[in-house]
Amino acid sequence: MQPTIIKTADGSHSLYLKELDEHYHSIHGAIQEGKHVFIEAGLKHIASQNISPVHILEIGLGTGLNVFLTFLECKKLNLAVNYTALEAFPLELNLISQLNYVECLNEETFGHSERVSESHPGKIFTSINTCRWETEISLSELFTLHKINNTLQEINFTDTYHLIYFDAFGPRVQPEMWTEELFSKLFSVLKPNGCLVTYCAKGEVKRTLKKIGFVVETLPGPPRKREMVRATKI
Length: 234
Fold this sequence. Notes:
The protein has 234 residues and is an alpha/beta fold. The protein is 32% helix and 26% strand. The protein has 7 helices and 11 strands. The strands form 2 sheets. An 8-stranded mixed beta sheet has the order 6-7-5-4-8-9-11-10, with helices on both faces. A hairpin with a 5-residue loop joins strand 1 and strand 2. Helix 6 crosses helix 7. The radius of gyration is 17 Å and the shape is globular.
């Protein structure tokens, strides 16, 4: 299956899989969705607990957008992060290189500066997607990234995490990713008071999370989506 690039309502790109009739991000704004669900409801919530470094696990690396948004926010917050990203089906680099996230975020984050440095957003986004898999690399003094090419079903975790970004395709397309078994696996690798955030707020998903032992909050969703979920391990 070869994704095609589409432009979402906030001007940022996403990918569309025709065979599955599924988008990688919200068509109402890829960047807006990532910031709302994962940065505002996830990263900032955990950062308020004065944890350092914050250990993050992402389920579904995809285009690397959530890593990029997290890096930029952590730079603003001067927050140390160890980021692990799981992806079973990595995208082709020539496709990722056409995405406009750097263009969309550059002016907002760095103004009109033309400076080029190791922390320049273009270099960071390239590094996120071209760095080696199965190896922990440093994107900056405060930010490490470890990309793992594996499935959630098969991986055996050796670390625990403060925060999980659950960004798999939705239950309609990937019902096997939204099971009690897999959420139990994620619950087991969360640290106490750690949380999982996801764009999906379906009743069945919330009931499954509660059954496992999560304390589930239904929060306002990103643009044009009524709700999202933050689930905490108490």
